[in-house]
Amino acid sequence: MPFVRVSYLENKYDTQQLPIISDVIMSALIEYFNVPEDDFFQVFHAHKASEFYYSKNYLNIRRTDGLLYIQITLKSGRSTEQKQSFYRELAERLSNTLTIRKEDVFVVLVDTEFEDWTFGNGVAQMIERPGKEREALE
Question: Domains in the chain and their CATH numbers?
């Protein structure tokens, strides 16, 4: 049940590249976090230069205007090893698929619980599911 937000500097990525970025993120989520294929919710935000700020060298990582901020809100419970593998593979795939610099792949995971989500109708579907069905989603 991840919700993905991708922010980038306008004119750095085009309408042909964005669906590829989306697919790469989703395939990594499926592989590393066992996300169902139809659990697909993503938004992309292009920002003007006056709205997009970053440190060019924080932690000795050289970033460029090709920076992608990828924020993924998802159910808690992934191990540190899963997260590290996900970060590494996502950067690798974006680099290999679109030649996005690994240094420009900035990811933040935001852990939540089942009661923090509604997928519509004003209902917290994840806590109103039968026990075994809910356990399968964790």
Answer: 3-137 (3.30.429.10)
